[in-house]
Amino acid sequence: MSRTIALIAHDGKKADMVAFATYNREQLRHYRLIATASTGKLLISKVGLEVTCLASGPYGGDAQIGAQVVEGGVEAVIFLVDPLDKHPHDPDIQSLMRLCNVHNVPLATNVATADCIISAIAMRTQLDQTTLEHR
């Protein structure tokens, strides 16, 4: 099982991503985190997480994450989308979302769903550890 979570946030949702990551910091520390450039830099400086920063979304970061989804290297994608703003790289955004659906990778586009995914992953991890301990 992959232990990577991808984190992306549109500019209008960066504060929400920082709040989400701060609240879930201890859980997120157990994963390899990848993020688009500005989101990753914020998570490093404001939350203190270790994050591998890829390119900015408009410069191919969404596509880089999509490629890792296709290769099976991402367990979940948390992409906080700002539905009230236009995005010039919308085709890349739609492609990433489609790839998550094609490859059955959990995708959160808002904080409520992101919280559900983090909780589910944590529960599954605890279940896996309990199963291994009882073998």
Tags for this model:
5 strands; Rossmann fold; five-stranded parallel beta sheet
Characterization of this structure:
By secondary structure, the chain is an alpha/beta fold. The chain is 53% helix and 15% strand. The chain contains 6 helices and 5 strands. It has a 5-stranded parallel sheet with strand order 3-2-1-4-5, sandwiched between helices. The two termini are 19 Å apart. The mean pLDDT is 91.
What are the secondary-structure elements, in order, as H or E? EHHEHEHEHEH
| 3D shape | globular
User: How many structural domains are formed by the residues?
Assistant: 1
Per the CATH scheme, the topology name is: Rossmann fold
Annotated CATH architecture:
3-Layer(aba) Sandwich
Instruction: State the end-to-end distance.
Output: 19 Å
Return the average pLDDT rounded to an integer: 91
Strand line-up across the major sheet: 3-2-1-4-5
What is the CATH superfamily label? Answer: Methylglyoxal synthase-like domain
The chain-level structural class is alpha/beta
Count of strand segments: 5
Radius of gyration: 14 Å
What's the layout of helices and strands?
Blueprint: E1 4-9, H1 14-23, H2 25-28, E2 32-35, H3 37-47, E3 51-53, H4 61-70, E4 76-80, H5 90-102, E5 107-108, H6 111-133
Parallel strand pairs: 1-2, 1-4, 2-3, 4-5
Helix pairs in contact: 1-3, 4-5
What's the gist of this structure?
The chain has about 140 residues and is α/β, with parallel strands linked by helices. Helix content is about 55%, strand content about 15%.
